[in-house]
Amino acid sequence: MTLRVHTVLYDGVEDQDFIGPVAALSIAEDVRQTFVTADGSGTVHTSAGLEILVRSRWAPQSADLILVPGGGYGEGSSVDSQIRRGVLPRALADAQRPGVITAAVCTGTMLLSAAGITVGRPCTTHHIAQEDLRAQGATVVKGRVVDDGDLVTSAGVTSGIDLGLWLTERLFGAEAAQVAEEVLEHERRGTVWRSA
């Protein structure tokens, strides 16, 4: 069975937040990755200035895994702009259904929080946003990756690689994750906290 991963992009998205998990997941067999935006197809400009042409429309009903990267934090950040616009948080809220895993890297968790997805759920985000996440009703857990079943989050920036490797292990097995670690020349670090 093919795992269909939709990675959500938007202007100012943090490059490493999505490149890390995309690279880790791409090593497993039977993974189809697609970049999407809540605004439809077009060009996205990342925080590092890369221009990425997003050709696919927003179609969360055809995703098994929706990956939401961060984009800075605080007033004027890309995450703040997306929260204020409201389009992406509404789209993420509407995308929730049985059978889909929603994952976030770094302050991407704050976009899930704005969508109401993290209320009462164990999760994590970049350390600079953890108090706000807690104040918005989430149960903040100390862990590099926090797996609460259909909600999987990771801490700051480079933890996205560990999130991708953890999802590879969870969905394809330990051997597939070990192969991905070897290909990436990356040793996982920190804790994976699991609710089950």
Describe this structure as you would to a colleague.
- The protein is an alpha/beta fold.
- It has one domain: Class I glutamine amidotransferase (GATase) domain (Rossmann fold), CATH 3.40.50.
- It is built from seven helices and eleven strands.
- The protein has helices spanning 15-26, 78-85, 87-95, 108-114, 130-135, 159-172, 174-184; strands at residues 3-8, 31-36, 42-45, 51-54, 65-68, 101-105, 122-123, 139-140, 145-147, 151-154, 192-194.
- The chain has a seven-stranded mixed β-sheet with strand order 2-1-5-6-10-9-11, with helices on both faces. Strands 3-4 form a two-stranded antiparallel sheet.
- Strand 9 and strand 10 form a beta hairpin.
- Helix 1 packs parallel to helix 6, helix 3 (87-95) crosses helix 4 and helix 6 (159-172) runs antiparallel to helix 7 (174-184).
- The protein starts with a strand and ends with a strand.
- The model has no long low-confidence stretch (mean pLDDT 97).
